[in-house]
Specification:
9% helix; 409 residues
């Protein structure tokens, strides 16, 4: 098993305004491009960016309560629980859909918040470093002023709301809102899951401490509703130095008053998968090249919807895509896939044309101009999990060398 280094959770905050960056090095497209250049030079491992926006989907039946067997999630039904005047929109907030999981639809006795209502609020939260005294000054929680993942800044000690879901934490108990909060005291992310409810005075209280994510011993990266009762916790393996391959993970179920239960073997893992991308280059003999981009689902389950993102180096253009991003500036979402069955692959092709080499950047004139592709999913815009456990194959490219252009001139 391989383990990620201490940048694993830093990247969960890297580009949330654009998307969630997890388990990869780059924090913006310029850095992505620069680091890819260095990897090309040193022939090191190619890293991929795990990012992109994802549409909201209803919460799934994540665990079959009766016998623990995997089951497909049934169609969503209308919810009857009324918590606030309006539901949180994943499009507006970048969070889960806020829909109540099937089997949890009865009205709540608590006043539950929406995502937007928590942003900007002051809430007294548990310490991120219990009993560690001044270490908690790096992530002040008494009270914490809640920001969002779009708020930039590493090591700034800001408390960010990553996700908000509605669950029933105990059988026959009230419907509750559980928030996943994160903080980057340095270059690593620490998290905690806390139940939040109205304090009766127009504010919000932390009513139950659900789980604390320690980046070394319990790296909590996501939360999702269980089938009927409880909250699922997605926990990766502790930090190490090598994240070039698959990342091990476990799924735990939290229920109020019960021992934390490892349900990895029985939890339905829809949305947890391994997507990979490859680029095949063909010289068309007329000064153009065909880039065939193939996305494959190497995992055992269907992913949440995901995007294929492309960019080109200066000096290259893509036929029919005048707005194709230059890689130093970012990427362009070229295709959106709602699903991809395990073992299935889909291929799309683009025609790439090269301009005169003397108009290329100096870097491209030495090492060639690149057409780059990556697949990206986002973790926190759905109530369920959206997780790619191996991002080492999420990025691929093809290079057009100066001599190839000159030969075809």
């Amino acid at each position: 098993m391989s383990t990620p280094d201490d940048t694993l959770f830093e990247e969960a905050f890297g580009e949330f305004a654009h998307a969630a960056e997890l388990m990869v090095d780059p924090v913006d497209s310029a850095v992505i491009h620069g680091r890819v250049r260095r990897r090309r030079t040193t022939k090191g491992a190619v890293a991929a960016a795990l990012a992109a926006l994802i549409v909201a989907v209803p919460a799934a039946w994540w665990l079959q309560e009766s016998n623990g067997d995997e089951v497909d999630p049934p169609p969503a039904e209308e919810t009857t629980g009324e918590t606030t005047e309006e539901e949180t929109s994943p499009v507006d907030t970048g969070t889960g859909s806020g829909e109540v999981p099937q089997g949890q639809e009865t009205e709540s006795e608590l006043i539950l918040p929406t995502f937007n209502e928590l942003v900007g609020a002051e809430i007294e939260l548990p310490e991120f470093f219990p009993g560690a005294g001044s270490l908690n000054d790096a992530c002040p929680t008494a009270p914490a002023t809640i920001g969002t993942a779009e708020d930039s800044g590493y090591g700034d000690g800001r408390i960010r709301l990553l996700k908000l879901v509605q669950v029933r934490l105990e059988e026959d108990g009230p419907l509750e809102a559980v928030a996943l909060f994160g903080c980057t005291p340095g270059d690593a992310l620490v998290t905690q899951a806390v139940a939040i409810a109205g304090d009766g005075e127009g504010g919000w209280d932390a009513t139950e401490e659900v789980a604390l994510g320690d980046s070394n011993s319990f790296p909590l990266v996501d939360i999702a509703p269980a089938a009927v009762t409880g909250l699922l916790l997605l926990v990766t393996e502790p930090h190490g130095t090598d994240h070039s391959g698959p990342l091990d993970y476990d799924i735990f179920r939290y229920r109020t008053g019960a021992t934390l239960e490892d349900v990895t073997a029985t939890a339905y893992q829809w949305g947890i998968t391994d997507l990979g991308v490859e680029v095949e280059k063909t010289d068309n003999g007329d000064g153009t090249w065909t880039a065939a981009v193939t996305v494959t689902n190497n995992g055992d389950h269907e992913p949440q919807p995901f995007d294929l993102e492309l960019c080109v180096d200066e000096g290259l253009s893509v036929e029919g895509a005048d707005d194709m991003a230059v890689c130093l500036d970012g990427t362009t979402v070229a295709e959106r896939y709602e699903t991809l069955a395990p073992g299935d692959a889909v291929t799309t092709e683009w025609t790439v044309e090269a301009g005169p080499v003397d108009e290329w950047s100096g870097d491209a004139q030495v090492g060639g101009a690149y057409f780059e592709a990556r697949v990206s999913t986002d973790m926190y815009t759905v109530d369920t999990f959206a997780f790619d456990f191996d991002v080492s194959n999420n990025y691929a490219n093809m290079v057009i060398l100066p001599e190839e252009v000159d030969a075809g001139a």
